[in-house]
Specification:
The complex is a heterodimer of chains A (797) and B (440).
Chain A (H helix, E strand, L loop, with lengths): L2 H4 L2 E5 L2 E5 L5 H7 L23 E6 L2 E6 L10 E3 L3 H16 L15 H9 L17 E2 L4 E3 L9 H8 L6 E4 L6 E4 L11 H6 L5 E3 L12 E6 L8 E7 L2 E7 L12 H5 L14 E3 L5 E3 L2 H19 L4 E5 L5 H15 L4 E2 L8 H5 L9 H4 L2 E5 L3 H4 L1 H12 L4 E6 L11 E4 L5 H9 L4 H7 L4 E5 L8 H13 L3 E5 L6 H6 L6 E2 L3 E2 L7 H10 L4 E5 L3 H4 L3 H10 L2 E6 L11 E4 L8 E4 L4 E5 L12 H11 L9 H11 L8 H7 L4 E2 L25 E5 L7 H4 L2 H4 L7 E3 L1 H7 L6 E6 L3 E8 L7 E5 L14 E6 L4
Helix pairs in contact in A: 3-4, 8-21, 9-21, 9-22, 14-16, 18-20
Chain B lengths: L8 H5 L7 H6 L4 H6 L4 H10 L12 H6 L7 E7 L8 H8 L1 H14 L2 E8 L4 H16 L15 E6 L9 H8 L24 E5 H13 L1 H6 L8 E8 L5 E6 L4 H8 L9 E5 L10 H4 L6 H6 L8 E6 L4 H15 L5 H18 L7 H12 E2 L6 E2 L5 H15 L1 H9 L16
Parallel strand pairs in B: 1-2, 1-4, 2-3, 5-8
Antiparallel strand pairs in B: 5-6, 7-8, 9-10
Classes of the chains: A alpha/beta (797), B alpha/beta (440).
The complex binds flavin mononucleotide and iron/sulfur cluster (3 copies).
Chain lengths: 797, 440
């Protein structure tokens, strides 16, 4: 950097001298120094277009003063700017008048009314009255441009924020201007809706009420909303959001622009994934199963005493290890800490796991010294994604990687069994057959691939590592991480599902970790072993905490047989689900936005979540339910608030010492990244054999889509209908061989399940692979064994 | 009167076959291109610069100076602006149709001088015949080895692509043209930072010149800078193609030396006003230029400086002459309507303001004007082109918006009474049919 970039140049704005880095946009320099220049089209996260002309200012030039748009003009040394003289005022008034002459002024019924930049800037800079006596421009209003977004072209001020966002940020250029001049309008392409996973961001950044979202439309007036900042509950990125509620109902999530994480963006799943909170189906009272399988409402006292009595009896007769705990990755760190202490100290069991057998080993998830930060991708020379399709499972990380590659010039290598969202930006895409990943890794480690070697020259290397799908075991990812860490100047972000899985592991909700990432002296059973133990009768009692193993565990039939085999099951949850159907007692839990606490993201960043709504009926926090059960079991844990648990937790987990509530609430608004442990994952050499593909020519690839049939989706009407449904994707060669084609049906039989599915021919697959999206409506589990037999059903029509 | 002819010499001497390769070569064609490949880039740029060849697309900017701004990044491109869509302008059409090889020769030299191996000729879509002629000439040049790989036996490669526009005047603006060539919407880019010579086509250095400008290039080199300057006026060098139209007896394209007075142009060159009528006003340099009137401008010479001093411009060389039977409100309305219709819609003042002006002028012309209307018109215009001057202090991205204001400047400066007569008299004193709003 030059001195002018670091120390800055001198600019005079309305007579005030300020310093800022050379080349910074004038609109930003002015704003940072207390002078707000009005604008509509400029957005700090999008490329500038200078279209609305609202930010015109006067600058002095050798040839006299000149009007320029502050949003497109970089500052230079000695620049003299006037943002308030008569000419500037005249221009501002004129622009606002032009924008208003055709504007419908629907303010009383417009979602934006009250938080509308057009209203606000008209107040501050506009002409007092209208002189327009002609007929206004009319468009049909509003028209749907996707399942979630409506467009009112009369309100649109043609600022191109939405089109730029769609094109530049997620790479979904599905909305564009059409016509020209006076007839210019935003449009989608024929028969191609704006079905971007990120469409809701356009609603947030539209400076008027032209774009509205179906889940929020007409639900509230902005002045009736109260808001609280929190952390998004949908994936491990820990995106910053503002939760907004009215009359105790959460009505929307907005992205908050924080550089550390999401920069203001959210996926539609995150943005609109709040509807379940207000669902009529929320559990409201403790329920106990009666003879005959029906549930009766019981009091909290009755419920806890039944639980204490049954768990106590099992513990008495068979020891604590006959009990097990599953779940805890959806709650707060405080909940997780309470759960971990409860399991170990009260139930006396080591059988506890927050992962649903779909994750990675705890060594990889918590033990990497060189764990990357999300922002490391901005300075990466090369980014490697060998894991789930980030667009489907970690949408804001997808945006961050896309930005780093597209705008900051990082190399990108994507390794996956089929097409992923990042492929169009990848310098190198390697497609492989699940089961042969070790062969590929051996090549890469051996330096046998010149294309990879060449890209890796650019360091630092930042790698996203995880399971590409459920038929690929977790050791594969661990081997990949080891290889990455063998490279010089490299960092890894291990990928796992469920928002607070990293926090829960740090709190010891794992069979091999105690609170504070301390290796357990004796290892308990993990989820798979717990379910197996329940099925075989080794384990008799189970506590489910916000967990639905029947849906979430890749081998769903194992979960079903485990839960059916259990003697006594307690579920703490917000809804009835396929797993609570096996519970003897169901306890209603508070959800996200109904409790306060901390959560930990993929980087180890601890952030606050905050309460804005009271929750349904008699729902309570996980920790307080657990504390009551403990008391009934004769162990008073002595907690009376989240804050107290947090204090206890900090005492026991020194890594979290800097992340007190006070610090997070007042000083560290972007959270605190807790220190990494002291040891790297030791270089781990998996057996270099391919997984068997016995008898069959085809292996199964099973991975998540953004929208699926999980309970939070099912209870949110706007999103659930977006789940694509079940499909069997086949490579064209395999489809031909099987006599199948897009639209025809095939039957899949695995060791653990079977399904009949419509075919989608998918040339992005490696030959010999059949891809089935995981947990789609109407599709039963196929398990995590890669061997699959596929046969055509009927005649292709 | 014998006038020096440069770019129209061949078509005047050989009216039937000036467009053919045979005739072109027989009259010395492609000699200069061949010779230029032995010259250095700097030599050519220097010659064109010191000859002060002015761009003929509207801004009258020195071509050599523009070339000297070419950024070092490569590849570089050359684009010939043959979009000619401004009302009243039809000079490029004649050059394209009647002497396409002259353009290609100029293009070869321009590309060589600007280190471009690929050039584009962007022709307005409504020019099918010129486009056919140019394409045919390009094909012939390829066949003769004057285009393509290793032209004229040197190791210089030059591809030329002929591209037809889709019917938008704005694509004549050089950065909109570049967008259009890239397959994007025809909308101007921001200047700065997207000056074509720095970041043009595909974000690479690009020289955009008008057809007539490029056609002059071989002659500048052949004559040398000094002789070229000697043709006519010492500052406005060379000749100038004027498209004379409107109420004159002999409309048409005329190649003229700079510096003639308007009286000479209108009464001698164009044969005077039809039916012996009085001259009322004329547009001196294309629809974007503020108008002149006989009482002030008839004896003024046609030079860049004199025209600018009088608050207008020589622009694209389109002169539209209006006689005493013309309703200037209607004339202004038609021009404003053209610009409103052609607005690309990218920026607010032009997209919203120009149609608003059209609506108000339509009402006035139709007898529904209100006393406040002209003040509102002036103030709305002021928001597009602050101070209502020429060259404009514009609030817009490109000059199209302020161009819509030029007719209004002209009404204000010269015909305020006629506007008032429309408003007070409840209609057009010339008693014409209703005007319909087209844009709104
Ligand atoms: C709205 C608008 C339309 C224009 N149309 C044309 C045109 O049709 N032909 C042209 O040569 N230049 C046109 N120009 C000027 C070009 O932008 C550019 O200045 C010119 O092509 C440069 O060539 P020159 O330097 O040889 O004049 C137009 C400019 C504007 C602002
Ligand atoms: S966008 Fe909505 S609130 Fe804003 S001015 Fe228009 S109608 Fe009113
Ligand atoms: S819809 Fe909104 S964001 Fe998109 S161009 Fe119109 S005003 Fe701008
Ligand atoms: S002034 Fe008119 S034509 Fe030029 S960019 Fe703006 S809207 Fe488009």
């Amino acid at each position: 950097m030059t001195a002018r970039e670091t120390e800055g140049v001198l600019v005079t704005i309305d007579g005030k001298e300020v310093r800022a880095p050379e080349g910074e946009l004038l609109i930003k320099t002015a704003e940072d120094n207390g002078t707000y220049i009005p604008r509509f089209c400029w957005h700090p996260r999008l490329k500038e277009v200078g279209m609305c002309r609202m930010c015109l200012v006067d600058i002095e030039t050798p040839g006299g003063s000149m009007m320029v748009t502050a949003c497109t003009n970089p500052i230079s040394d000695g620049m003299v700017v006037d943002t308030k003289n008569d000419r500037v005022k005249k221009a501002q008034e004129a622009i606002l008048e032009y924008l208003l002459i055709n504007h419908p002024l629907d303010c009383p019924v417009c979602d934006r009314g009250g938080e509308c930049p057009l209203q606000d800037q008209t107040m501050s800079y506009g002409p007092g009255e209208t002189r327009f006596v002609e007929e206004k421009r009319h468009f049909e209003k509003p028209i749907p441009i996707s399942d979630l977004v409506l467009l009112d072209r009369e309100r649109c001020i043609l600022c191109a924020r939405c089109t730029r966002f769609a094109d530049e940020v997620p790479g979904d250029p599905l909305i564009e201007f059409k016509e020209r001049g006076y007839g210019t309008q935003i449009s989608i392409f024929p028969n191609q809706p704006f079905s971007s996973y990120f469409s809701g961001n356009t609603v947030q950044i539209c400076p008027v009420g032209a774009l509205t979202a179906t889940p929020y439309r007409f639900r509230a007036r902005p002045w009736d909303l109260k808001a609280v900042e929190s952390t998004c509950p949908h994936c491990t990125a820990g995106d910053r959001i503002s939760i907004e509620a009215s009359q105790n109902q959460v009505l929307r999530f907005l992205g908050v622009d924080v550089d550390a994480t999401n920069r203001g963006w959210l996926s539609d799943k995150c943005r609109f994934g709040f509807e379940y909170l207000n669902s009529e189906d929320r559990l409201t009272n403790p329920l106990a199963r009666q003879e005959g399988g029906t549930y009766e409402e019981v009091s909290w006292g009755e419920a806890t005493s039944i639980i204490a009595q049954r768990f106590g009896a099992i513990r008495e007769a068979h020891g604590g290890d006959a009990l097990a705990v599953l779940g805890g990755a959806h709650g707060t760190n405080e909940d997780a800490y309470a759960l971990s202490v409860f399991a170990r100290d009260v139930l006396g069991t080591k059988n506890i796991d927050c992962r649903m057998d779909d994750a990675l080993g705890t060594r990889l998830l918590t033990g990497i010294d060189r764990r990357a930060r999300i922002s490391d991708v901005d300075t990466a020379g090369t980014i490697i994604v060998w894991g789930p399709d980030l667009k489907e499972e970690h949408p804001t990380l997808y945006l961050r990687v896309r930005h780093a590659v597209q705008e900051l010039g990082a190399n990108l290598i994507v390794i996956h069994p089929r097409a992923t969202g990042l492929d169009d930006r990848a310098d190198l895409k390697i497609t492989y057959r699940p089961g042969s990943g070790s062969d590929l890794l051996t090549q890469l480690r051996g330096g046998d691939r010149d294309d990879v070697n060449a890209l890796l020259e650019a360091s630092p290397v930042v790698a996203f590592v995880g399971r590409t799908g459920y038929t690929e075991g977790p050791t594969m990812a661990e081997a990949v991480a080891s290889w990455i860490l063998e490279l010089e100047d490299s960092r890894v972000l291990p990928l796992a599902r469920r928002a607070n899985v990293f926090g829960a592991l740090d709190m010891g909700v794992a069979p091999d970790l105690e609170p504070g990432r301390i290796a357990a002296t004796e290892t308990g059973r993990d989820t798979r072993q717990i379910l197996g133990g329940l099925a075989s009768g080794d384990i008799r009692g189970l506590l489910l905490v916000g967990a639905d193993p029947v849906r979430d565990v890749p081998d769903g039939s194992l979960a079903t047989s485990g839960l059916s085999g259990a003697e006594f099951v307690v579920a703490i949850d917000m809804f009835h689900n396929d797993s609570t159907a096996h519970a003897d007692v169901i306890l209603p839990a508070l959800g996200f936005s109904e409790k306060e606490g901390t959560v930990t993201n993929i980087e180890g960043r601890v952030q606050k979540v905050n309460r804005i709504a009271p929750g349904s009926g008699q729902s309570r926090s996980d920790w307080s339910i657990i504390a009551d059960i403990a008391t009934a079991l004769g162990s008073d844990l002595g907690w009376t608030s989240e804050q107290e648990i947090n204090d206890a937790m900090m005492a026991r987990v020194p890594a979290y010492a800097e992340a007190s509530w006070d610090a997070l609430d007042w000083e560290e608004r972007d959270g605190v990244v807790v220190p990494a442990p002291g040891a790297d994952v030791p270089v781990y050499r998996p057996e270099m054999t391919t997984q068997p593909t016995v008898g069959a020519e085809l292996v199964l690839h099973s991975a998540r889509k953004l929208y699926d049939d999980g309970v939070m989706m099912r209870k949110g009407p706007s999103l659930h209908r977006l789940a694509p449904g079940g499909f069997a994707h086949l490579h064209p060669d395999d489809a031909r061989r099987l006599g199948a084609r897009t639209g025809s049906a095939v039957r899949l039989v695995t060791k653990r399940g079977e399904a009949e599915l419509p075919v989608q021919v998918d040339p992005s697959l490696h030959r010999g692979v059949v891809y089935v999206p995981f947990n789609q409506p109407g599709v039963g589990p196929l398990g995590d064994d890669p061997v699959v037999r596929v046969t055509a059903v009927g005649e292709p029509d | 009167m014998s006038r020096p002819l440069v770019v129209t010499r061949r078509m005047v001497d050989h009216p039937t076959d000036s467009h053919t390769l045979d005739r072109y070569q027989e009259t010395g064609g492609y000699e200069m291109a061949r010779r230029s490949l032995d010259m250095t880039r700097d030599e050519i740029v220097e010659t064109v610069k010191s000859a002060n060849l002015l761009g003929r697309g509207g801004a009258a900017f020195s071509a050599g100076l523009k070339w000297s701004f070419l950024a070092p990044d490569r590849p570089a491109y050359v684009v010939v602006n043959a979009d000619e869509s401004e009302p009243g302008t039809f000079k490029d059409r004649q050059l394209l149709e009647r002497d396409p090889h002259q353009l290609i020769e100029g293009l070869i030299i321009t590309s060589w001088a600007n280190e471009a191996n690929h050039a584009f000729i962007y022709i307005r879509g409504e020019y099918p015949k010129p486009a056919r002629r140019v394409q045919q000439a390009v094909d012939e040049a390829y066949a003769a080895g004057y285009l393509g790989e290793g032209i004229f036996g040197t190791d210089f490669d030059l591809e030329v692509t002929v591209h037809l526009g889709g019917g938008a005047y704005i694509c004549g603006e050089e950065t909109a043209m570049i967008n259009s060539l890239e397959g994007l919407r025809g909308e101007p880019r921001l200047k700065p930072p997207y000056f074509p010579a720095a970041k043009g086509l595909y974000m690479k250095p690009t020289i955009v010149n008008n057809v007539e400008t490029i056609c002059n290039v071989p002659h500048v080199l052949a004559m040398g800078a000094e002789d070229f300057k000697g043709i006519a006026h010492p500052e406005d060098t060379g000749t100038f193609l004027l498209s004379l139209s409107g109420h004159v007896n002999e409309p048409g394209n005329y190649e003229l030396p700079h510096g003639l007075t308007w009286r000479e142009i209108i009464y001698d060159v164009a044969g005077g006003i039809r039916d012996g009528n009085e001259l009322k006003t004329w547009i001196p340099g294309g629809a974007s230029a503020p108008w002149f009137v006989p009482s002030l401008h008839l004896d003024m010479p046609l030079t860049k400086q004199a025209t600018a001093d009088a608050g207008s411009m020589i622009g694209s060389g389109a002169v539209v002459v209006m006689d005493e039977t013309t309703c200037v409100v209607r004339a202004a309305l038609r021009l404003v309507r053209f610009f409103a219709h052609e607005s690309c819609g990218e920026c607010t003042p032009c997209r919203e303001g120009a149609p608003w002006l059209e609506m108000m002028l339509t009402r006035i012309e139709n007898g529904q004007g209100r006393p406040v209307d002209f003040d509102v018109i002036l103030d709305v215009s002021d928001g597009i082109s602050i101070g209502l001057e020429w060259p404009p202090k514009m609030t817009t991205i490109c000059a199209l918006g302020p161009s819509a204001v030029s007719p209004i400047i002209s009404l204000r400066d010269h015909f305020g009474d006629e506007v008032v007569a429309h408003i007070e008299g409840g209609g057009c004193p010339f008693g014409r049919v209703e005007e319909e709003e087209v844009v709104a």
